[in-house]
Design goal:
alpha+beta; 2 domains; 6 helices
Length: 285
């Protein structure tokens, strides 16, 4: 798993699982100087801890404002700090909106992005006539009328499979192959009554319905998850049907799909590196 560094010590490839509240970050990837990104903060903290200049690689280059519960990164270090102490040691140098949850020593050739077999994204929506000071940073508010979640679920299911998803790809990044395998797309809904007790209720009278749109794929194009959500919301308000959505997927024109949903509702839940773990999350055929 390791090899000698220039001083004769051992170089290890460390794999970290990190979580972050994405509101104040300009995405994951380092950009022009002065922009605060997750990668920059992680590299700065490793340097402060070990004195090394490292290059942190992320499994997913999340956009500005997108949150993560289970982002995976890796980097190489010659530090002798025991692997189980890395989360706490790095935590003393990290801001409160970025946390290292776990650290393990990976194989020398492990690459957080290229070794990933699947990624799970979830988009949160809440239906409420008034904004919530607790939810508005983490979910999209839908003021009404009520969404047709049955139609949305049918449309989401219709998107599953191996397709050319160029109709759900925003301009802004170069990609040669726009084909992806969407293993699963579906909705889960819950109300105030079965909301976790730790989650504050939105402001305002009446019950609030929360929607979680879950997408599992082998990879996502630029804004692909957010364009899918924006398009499913169009279905939910009766602007599109599941059949017409399939036609637009086949047509491949971005101008025929829905708007790009705001970043704040999107969460990177987990990155999958094991076939067994991937298959265990998928519904039976």
């Amino acid at each position: 798993m390791s090899g000698p560094d220039r001083q004769g010590g051992q170089v290890r490839n460390l794999r970290l699982t990190v979580a972050y509240e994405g509101t104040a970050f300009h995405g994951f990837q380092a950009q022009r100087p002065g922009l605060r990104t997750v990668q920059v903060e992680l590299e700065r903290s490793v340097s402060a801890l070990t004195g090394e200049a490292v290059r942190v690689t992320g499994a997913s280059r999340t956009d500005s404002g997108v949150h993560a519960r289970g982002q995976v990164v890796n980097f190489r270090t010659g530090s002798a700090i025991p692997v189980d102490r890395w989360p706490r040691a790095l935590g003393s140098h990290l801001p409160p909106d970025l946390v290292v949850q776990d650290a393990v020593e990976a194989a020398a050739d492990f690459h957080a992005r290229y070794f990933a077999l699947g990624k799970i994204y979830r988009y949160l929506v809440y239906e409420s006539a008034v904004p919530s000071p607790f939810w508005d940073r983490y979910a999209l508010r839908w003021p009404g009328p009520p969404l047709d979640t049955s139609a949305m679920h049918r449309a989401a299911t219709a998107l599953q499979g191996y397709h050319d998803f160029r109709a759900f790809h925003d301009t802004g990044s170069r990609v040669g192959d726009t084909r992806r395998h969407l293993f699963y797309a579906g909705l889960h809904q819950f109300t105030d009554e079965d909301r976790p007790a730790i989650v504050p209720p939105p402001a305002g009278p009446g019950k609030t319905r929360f929607l979680g749109i879950t997408l599992i794929a082998d990879g996502f194009l630029y804004h692909m998850a957010r364009v899918m959500v924006g398009t499913l919301l169009e279905v939910g308000r009766a602007g599109l049907t599941a059949d017409s959505l399939c036609e637009r997927l086949a047509d491949g024109r971005r101008d025929l799909t829905g708007p790009t949903a705001p970043a704040k509702g999107l969460w990177l839940e987990r990155v999958l590196y094991c076939q067994a773990a991937l298959h265990s999350l998928l519904p039976p055929i």
